[in-house]
Amino acid sequence: VEFGQPPRSYSSQEIKLPMAARSVSWRNPYTAQLILEVTEAAKTEWNREATRQFNVVERSVRQWCKTGSVIKCLHNRKQAMQFRKMLVEKR
């Protein structure tokens, strides 16, 4: 092996970066039906239990519980946070 040259087993094509280093972020929108199920579970249990059960972030559960009445108006298959457009149009 020459000085300054990487070993052959570590070619640039074989090195795979972790997801954090790729700078590609995927957004996973939740349906209104799932949000309603999570908020109902959070009302009967603690928020942390609902996050474990549905594998979502606790911050999202707190936010969904605050805006629960707006989410109930949505169709079940609508994506999450689409209700903001409805609020802007009504004003």
TrEMBL record:
InterPro entries xrefs: Brinker_DNA-bd
Pfam family for this entry, one: BrkDBD
The segment(s) forming the Brinker DNA-binding domain are 27-72
Protein's recorded name: Brinker DNA-binding domain-containing protein
Please tell me the species this chain comes from.
Answer: Argulus foliaceus
The organism's lineage is:
Eukaryota, Metazoa, Ecdysozoa, Arthropoda, Crustacea
